[in-house]
Amino acid sequence: MIVGFGSIGKRHMENIVTNTNYEIIILSKRNDLNSLKKKNIKVFNSLDKCLVEKPDIAFITNETAYHIPIAKKLAKLGLDLFIEKPLSNKIKDVKEVVQISKRKKLITLMGCNLRFN
Question: What is the reported pTM?
């Protein structure tokens, strides 16, 4: 699942499409993504609708202020996480995400997608 579909979310999608055959679910508030549905990419504007699809991993690429709240919710549900930089715009709840990730033995990365080129 890709949370947020700006330029970074698009880049992650392209990497996944190019290098794997995994199903892609996109969470976005954008309403101009109908062409992606033709490529068997599921697009939703609600996190709950995305979660019905039972994703295993989330790439969190939305606005920085929402990284940690989304990460916390998804970690509690047991999803592995890749959180784009910056991790957050404030320290609140960062420690909780780390603790949840450790307790559930989740793969949790924070980085920049260009680092893996």
Answer: 0.91
* Whole-number Å distance between alpha carbons of 41 and 38: 7
Q: What is the DSSP letter of 78?
A: T
Q: How is residue 113 written in tokens?
A: 């997608």
Longest dimension (CA), the chain: 40
pLDDT in tens, the chain (117 residues): 999 999 999 999 999 999 999 999 999 999 899 888 778 899 999 999 999 999 999 999 999 999 999 999 999 999 999 999 988 888 889 999 999 999 999 999 988 756 655
The span from the CA of 102 to the CA of 96, in Å, is 10
